[in-house]
Design goal:
- This is PRC-barrel domain-containing protein.
- The chain has a five-stranded antiparallel beta sheet with strand order 4-3-2-1-5, with no helix packed on it.
- By secondary structure, it is mainly β.
- The protein has one domain.
- The chain is built from no helices and five strands.
Length: 77
């Protein structure tokens, strides 16, 4: 995966944090940034606002942050 890749983004927890996403909740977008160099694995003991590797601009206008397991490349250009 790389910045600029077209991806399908999913995750175990929805952006609202209160329900589990289903495959129909998967949305398309483009990877716009990679935070691998800044991740330390330290979450400060919290379960909220945990850092994720990839910033993804979704086609619906939202910006989300996901890890490798939450993204599927859909266009390998």
């Amino acid at each position: 995966m790389r910045v600029g890749a077209r991806v399908r983004a999913t995750s175990a927890v929805s952006d609202s944090g209160d329900e589990t996403d289903t495959p129909s909740d998967a949305v398309l977008g483009t990877v716009v940034d990679d935070y691998a160099g800044t991740l330390t694995g330290d979450t400060g003991g919290r379960t909220w606002a945990v850092p994720h590797r990839w910033a993804v601009a979704l086609d619906d206008g939202r910006l989300v942050f996901r890890d490798d397991a939450d993204l599927e490349v859909v266009d390998s250009e």
